[in-house]
Design brief:
With about 290 residues, the chain is α+β, with helices and mostly antiparallel strands. The chain has three helices and ten strands. It starts with a strand and ends with a helix.
Length: about 290
């Protein structure tokens, strides 16, 4: 846990001319007495492509620090133009406000800074050499980027762990790699066994289906022959019945033509034949 906590930073002069001083009102809390002072720094990032142009604008030692909430004003000079590339004066850059205890940084606050001319005409058509008197800086105070670091304070108990804690029991534990390899081998063997069993089952099903086809073949063929024979018998019966009917009808017609004068004998003969003809017609309807 950090002994000093940054509670807030307020920028007092913003926006401001490029060459004006930076002014910050800083509020922090100290949880226990400190043996040494706090060191505050303000750094100006002169170029986005190289750290060689970074400038430490000012630094301040604050102490002794009483326990509780503390507030002070930190002022820093503007950056030296000679250390900034001409092409990097205008545009967006960064300033860094940091605090250290015993040369160990524990908090850093970064702000974006936009440098531009104070009129639209010069912004639309900037001169080849920047006119610093017309340049104004605007710190984006609403969007700071705060980074905190764990450090050692006055006691060893407050120091962060530099190395993982010792675990002597870890040497007696079985290697995870070997266990993982054994489990993977068992899984592959189980999958291979399952595939083999499935293949045997499929072969057995194919054999059973083939035997069923062989067994059903002769019976199906015999049933087909029986059906074919039955169909032939029905057709023959129908055909013979039709022929007999035609013959009897022709005979009946012939006898009627020849023996119209025979009287009761002829009538009896026709009466005897009529039931047979009706029976044959009924059989034909049933077949169809």
């Amino acid at each position: 846990m950090s002994v000093v906590s940054l509670l807030g930073v307020k920028i007092l002069n913003n926006p401001a001319p490029f060459d004006a001083k930076y002014q910050f009102e800083i509020t922090f809390e100290c949880l226990e007495p400190l043996q040494k002072d706090l060191e505050w720094k303000l750094t100006y990032v002169g170029s986005a492509t190289s750290s060689e142009h970074d400038q430490e604008l000012d630094s301040l030692l604050v102490g002794p620090i009483p326990v509780g909430v503390n507030k002070f004003i930190f002022e820093a000079d503007s950056p030296d133009l000679k250390r900034i590339p001409t092409s990097e004066i205008l545009g967006v850059t960064v300033i860094l406000l940091s605090c250290s205890y015993d040369d160990r940084e524990f908090v850093r606050v970064g702000y974006y800074v936009n440098n531009e001319y104070d009129n639209e005409e010069m912004n639309d058509d900037p001169p080849a050499k920047p006119v610093i008197e017309k340049v104004r800086r605007n710190i984006l105070a609403e969007k700071p980027r705060v980074t905190r670091f764990a450090i050692k304070w006055d006691t060893e108990d407050s120091a962060p762990a530099e190395f993982p804690p010792e675990q002597p029991e870890a040497d007696t534990v079985e290697d995870d790699g070997a266990a993982y390899g054994a489990e993977e081998a068992e899984l592959e063997a189980a999958e291979a066994e399952a595939e083999t069993a499935e293949g045997v089952k499929e072969d057995k099903e194919d054999e059973e289906m083939g035997g069923a086809d062989d067994t059903a073949g002769p019976a199906a063929a015999k049933a087909g022959d029986d059906e074919s024979d039955a169909g032939s018998e029905d057709l023959e019966a129908e055909s013979s019945g039709s022929e007999e009917e035609d013959i009897e009808e022709e005979e009946g017609e012939g006898e009627a033509d020849e023996d119209m004068d025979m009287g009761e004998d002829t009538a009896q003969t026709a009466a005897d034949k009529e039931p047979a003809i009706q029976g044959q017609h009924q059989g034909e309807v049933m077949v169809h």
